[in-house]
Amino acid sequence: MLSSTCRRVFMFNRLSAALTLLPRRLLLVSSPRTLTGACRLLGRMNPAVVRCLPGEPKLTISLSLDGSHKHMMRDQDEPLGKALARISHGLNKSKGKAKKSKKKKGETPGEAPVLTAVKLYYNGEEVSDMSLNSEAWRDGAVLQVGDVEYSVRRNTPTLTNAELPASLLAEFPVCPNLEIEFGNLEDCEFTWYRENAPNTSTEAAVEVEGQDSEWTQVGCGRVHVPSVQDIGYRLKLRCTPKDGGRSGLPKELLSTAIEAGPGVCTFDNRHAYTLKEAEWPSVRVVSYNILADTYAQTELSKTVLYPYCAPYALQLDYRQNLIKKELAGYNADIICLQEVDKALDAFGLDGVFRTKDRQHEGLATFYRRSGPPAPGLKKMPSEFFSVSLKLLSSHNISLSEALTSDPIHSALLENLSASTALKKNILKRSTVLQVSVLEDVSKPGRKVCVANTHLYWLPKGGSIRLVQMGVALQHLNHVINEVAPGAPLIFCGDFNSHPDSGVFQLLSEALVPLQHADWSSLGPEESCSMELLSALPPLLSAYGQPAYTNYVGGFHGCLDYIFIQPDSMQVEQVIPLPSHQEVTTYEALPSVAHPSDHIALICDLRWNP
Description:
By secondary structure, this protein is α+β, with helices and mostly antiparallel strands. 24% of the residues lie in helices and 28% in strands. It contains 15 helices and 32 strands.
């Protein structure tokens, strides 16, 4: 028999259908209690979450049954009756175990458990046991298990992964790592709490909404910046996944105790130059090799490359604290990152990510989207506004693959064929080029081409880098001519090339002669002599030729660049690099005060309207 709650929900659904036929003026005098009562009843039911996707053979049903969480997987084309029988069987099985436990303890067991009735209702009507699971488990249905009722939520927004960083520092932004299904992270609700007294327990406290005296709400939004007063306390984050007006089941995350930060960081003084966003029509550009975790955690890195760096400061969670604060403080419009393991997506920026072939790190390009300022950043005065960008298209390539497959590189490939050994070596490389065509939201048609790459690393690999850059420039010229004629180019990256290299000469002079030393950098067996012409006019290094952008024990040099086309962009401001004293405070980079072995390049470029 249909329960009293289900009957009321059924009557509510019928009433709602009838009310839609009445004139609006009559509805205005109706009691809101009548219209919302059944909704409150549904809201108070325990949820039965169903995940069912077309094309998948199984669906899953998740619910709390007799005090324990059940997660069942059933065939989509199975009759509903079998799934309901399985729920009933599982409940009676747990009751049977409870009976045996009582018997072992010497207690008198009760009567044999009666088979629990399990029914599914939709719009007040019982769903036939012969209905297929894929059709029966509809959003808004009511599952009745004995006297307990569940509100069926089908394909509800769900957090499939949710975790806080292992390391939290005072005055550094905290952002959870989240993955969502059937929802949108931008729609989700976030509420942050701080415990009222320091607690060393690692177990999450049980929160009863409106009755929890152990936690105090301290913020909302995906990003939270704990204060110095929070040191020694834990944070709790309540995340509610959403998709527009639809909400899923919230998750609570408990942090470790907040620790003191490292003090003055290498980027703190640089932030004084970037307190405000660049004013339109200018754009602020950042290029930064942030040191991939896959490289920072090797035994070679810990014992040979960075032995001076405290081991905890090489941990990803610790370094990401610094990276996020550093990038947020630059108030950038375009950020090109190299050696990225995970994309950063919570600072008012959208982005695209491209991994290298056969590797676990790659490139990321972020751009400021339209909307409010990024969390934690100051709002611009009303008389100013910064650029808002949208992605029109991406044209990413693997440089070695493009060399052999794209006919625009046929001349270069033919010249390279004279050195079989060098050609073979080049084709082994997994280097990629990321190309993004962006458009100014406030002025449609105003486009810019942003390129990002990380060239081959081997110090003696100058000839390989020359060919890679030749392919990159040819591809960029093709993209601009075909997709965004007249658009200026911003070319960022870790080029692993000194200012006296062939790569720098190719970019700045548009030609590398056949006698350049880099053509024989790998020795006589892989030497190659060719005159290499750039497909683009000479470009300008926005930072010029700094003494170094990479500083590690035993090596320092300029490897990173932001190149622009001087006829369509001008350098307005170059943010000074950290002083040598700041860089060497802890001997070299990375350190407890700097997250990478490279230094970020930041400049404001006037982009002609």
